[in-house]
Design goal:
This protein is an all-alpha fold. 76% of the residues lie in helices and 0% in strands.
Length: 239
């Protein structure tokens, strides 16, 4: 474990990365609230599908406007495949958690994602983690255990859905670090939201849900969800 002082450049990168992570977590937390509200009017699978299509179109249009390259052969590499799989796992299980458990507990469990990413970065990428950060990691994991209370009489296995979703998102973030540097944020964003749309299809088939046309109010909520998703996704990939 590294206990030495970091150089100014590294400190600045850590600061910027931390701020971006906070922005992403805030955006995703509000997006979860939107999904929870809309789930009272539309099936969860359909919500994810519409958010996925909206996010994919948003990144595609922004890339066209900025004349950014979208497709390269590096899309067909193992880190990208793992990223897509992790995204689907995270979205499916976390959406089930939002549908069947309280928003407060699900969102709090999701906040442990950066903690798991730190552990993964230390183990997989051999990144140095200071003693203070390890203390923060174990404190955060203890907080998650307090939330789900695995030994309590009122423990609900539905809480595991949020944990599995959180692990999926952590895997996505770690895979994002491993992908080729030639892949820009627009390519990653498009594939990420296509994974969200695929998650919606999986949930729709699993629950045998029928398509419902959203009204104007629900449509506005979905547009807000897409905006928050794009902001959160952009921030977390940059972080």
């Amino acid at each position: 474990m590294d206990v030495t002082c970091e150089n100014p450049s590294s400190q600045r990168e850590n600061y910027v990365g931390s701020c971006l992570m906070v922005i992403s977590m805030a955006a995703f937390a509000v997006e979860d609230s939107v999904i929870k509200v809309v789930s009272g009017f539309l099936p969860v699978g359909q919500i994810l599908f519409l958010l996925g299509i909206g996010g994919t179109a948003s990144f595609f249009l922004i890339a066209l406007i900025l004349k950014k390259k979208i497709w390269t052969s590096d899309v067909l590499t193992w880190p990208m495949h793992l990223r897509v799989i992790s995204e689907i796992v995270g979205r499916v299980f976390y959406s089930l958690a939002l549908a069947f458990t309280s928003l407060a507990s699900s969102t709090m469990i999701l906040q442990a994602t950066p903690i798991v990413v730190v552990v993964g970065a230390a183990i997989i990428f051999r990144e140095k983690v200071s003693i203070l950060r390890w203390v923060a990691v174990f404190t955060g994991l203890l907080g998650v255990l307090i939330i789900i209370q695995p030994t309590a009489d009122n423990f609900s296995f539905l809480s595991v859905l949020a944990v599995l979703g959180m692990l999926g998102f952590a895997g996505r973030d770690l895979a994002s670090r491993a992908v080729s540097k030639s892949l820009n944020i627009f390519t990653l964003g498009m594939h990420g939201f296509m994974s969200v749309a695929m998650s919606g299809i999986i949930l729709t088939l699993f629950f045998d849900e029928s398509f419902l046309w959203p009204d104007i109010k629900t449509g506005l909520f979905l547009m807000l969800g897409v905006l928050l998703g794009v902001v959160g996704y952009s921030a977390i990939v940059s972080a």
